[in-house]
Specification:
Helix content is about 35%, strand content about 15%. The protein has helices spanning about 1-5, 10-40, 60-65, 80-85, 105-115, 150-155, 170-180, 205-215, 230-235, 270-275, and strands at about 95-100, 120-125, 140, 160-165, 185-195, 220, 225, 235-240, 245-250. Strand 4 (about 160-165), helix 7 and strand 5 (about 185-195) form a beta-alpha-beta unit. It is globular.
């Protein structure tokens, strides 16, 4: 009944009403989602146990586990499954790999071992002492990742980046500035990873949520939906515990198309009813 009455309103009033209702219900949706998450029933361990350990054939995990001496690597164990899932496609290629947060330098060697000798590794850190990590195929840049001017200078001579790992200072400002500045520098099909996003009210996660929401943006056009720039460029955004992965498309998405296949359809889903419910029948 409410939908029918709303359709009788003038278009500007109807649109304002819809926006007001969305603004009103959004925080309730957030709270409801938090409640569902807080009340999930315990999950049975899969066959073979749990513990969050990556699968045994993950080359990055094997490297990490065998790194008993030499430059240190400090990573959450569950990251390694996500690494391999999103980055395996670059193995044996010649990717440009950039990591913020060199620290003791162990992960730079790990990436080189994983991607192969054809990769180009660029490490970034604010500490001048990290220059010692430079070696064949590994370049070190010193600067503040929270300073947009630093990134603007870096990008002047930087090729498109295939893999970017932000394991730097972990503050929301540093993480936001880094993603803002480097997303446009990512190569087609590139993967941007931000690590160590801690806390349920993390400001960087709010930033990511704002961008992710644009993936669901709809703008009606004759013949389908016309993607906005986020939908054209961003393939997907993945959220893991303490980690966000942004994958760029290998080519721009020029259309969002919905089609029907088949000849038999139930009569209850007809255009008039869908219009009353504000659902696009096409």
């Amino acid at each position: 009944m409410m939908s029918v009455l709303q359709n009788l309103l003038p278009s500007p009033v109807r649109e304002a009403s819809i926006k007001a209702r969305i603004a009103l219900y959004r925080p309730f949706g957030w709270l409801r989602g938090r409640k569902v998450g807080a009340n999930l029933q315990p999950m049975r361990a899969a066959h073979g146990g749990g513990g969050g350990e990556p699968v045994v054939d993950n080359a990055l995990w094997t490297y990490f586990q065998n790194n008993h001496t030499g430059p240190g690597i400090w990573k959450w164990h569950h990251y390694f499954e996500a690494y391999d899932r999103h980055l395996a496609k670059f193995r044996g290629q010649s990717p440009v790999v950039m990591e913020v947060g060199i620290y003791s330098g162990g992960s730079l060697g790990m990436w080189r071992s994983y991607f192969g000798p054809g990769c180009s590794i660029i490490g970034v850190d604010i500490e001048e002492a990290c220059r010692v990590c430079e070696s064949e195929g590994i370049r070190v840049l010193i600067g503040d990742q929270g300073d947009p001017e630093f990134w603007r200078g870096v990008k002047k001579d930087l090729p498109p980046v295939d893999v970017f790992i932000d394991d730097g200072g972990h503050t929301k400002t540093q993480q936001i500035v880094t993603l803002e500045q480097m997303l446009s520098q990512m190569a087609p099909g590139g993967v941007f990873i931000c690590e160590d996003i801690h806390g349920t009210r993390n400001g960087f996660m709010a930033f990511v949520a704002g961008m992710a929401g644009l993936l669901n943006k709809t703008e009606k056009r004759d013949g389908g939906q016309v993607p906005d720039e986020v939908q054209r460029q961003i393939h997907s955004i993945h959220i893991y515990p303490y980690m966000v992965v942004v994958e760029k498309r290998s080519a721009p998405l020029d259309a969002l198309t919905l089609s029907k296949q088949g000849t038999e359809w139930q009569p209850f889903l007809h255009p008039e009813r869908m219009q009353a419910q504000q659902v696009d029948p096409n």
